[in-house]
């Protein structure tokens, strides 16, 4: 009787042990699958494209000083039309030229310490001309040649042209798509190297756009929007996380 009872408890213990082992194996399998589904690979995809500016804004200012306001105004009113005629002669359409209003600055006498007094010794008058055009190459050349006017006795100050790309909105969408493709390709290579494959996208974050002068390596956390160069490089970055299967 005691032998049968001992045999019963022995068999029950074996069954319990086997059950615990099987439970552990099943739980471990599910746990491993769950952990594998939770694994992600995070990559950064990038895309770069060369673009050419399609809008240029160039400004030049004419300035004259004279003891009397009327004399300074006379010089300005005679020479600003000459500058405008020069621009027209260079092939710039009149509707692309804007002439600003005149800015007047009184000139004050200074003492031996360089401090200005209330006494007015003359006037400085300044008028600005702006050219806004899609003919980027023509205006770029014009800006370089405008100093010819100095030889004609015109006191002109030529500012560096500012170059823009007006189709940036549409291009950004295209570039982000290319950067996302690059991110997926990188993730697939990383996963394949460990015998896995990527699954669905878990998260995606767009980085800032970098619009730099051509071949520049400059970057900024806030993004760059270059206006100094005709030819530019636009770079888009996307940080993406993929599930690993």
Can you describe what's shown?
By secondary structure, this protein is α+β, with helices and mostly antiparallel strands. It has helices at 2-38, 69-89, 136-145, 148-151, 168-192, and strands at 40-52, 55-66, 97-99, 103-110, 116-133, 156-158, 162-164, 198-206, 210-213, 224-225, 231-244. The protein is built from five helices and eleven strands. Strand 4 and strand 5 (116-133) form a beta hairpin. The radius of gyration is 37 Å and the shape is elongated.
What are the segments in which pLDDT stays under 50 over at least 5 consecutive residues? 1-35
Helix content: 25-40%
The chain-level mean pLDDT equals 85
Helix segment count? 5
| CATH superfamily membership of the largest domain | Protein of unknown function (DUF541), domain 2
What is the ordering of alpha helices and beta strands?
HEEHEEEHHEEHEEEE
Largest sheet: 6 strands, antiparallel
- For the record, give the distance between the C-alpha atoms at the N and C termini, rounded to a whole number: 57 Å
Domains (count): 2
- Total strands: 11
Q: What is the CATH architecture assignment of the largest domain?
A: 2-Layer Sandwich
Helix/strand structural class: alpha+beta
CATH class of the largest domain equals Alpha Beta
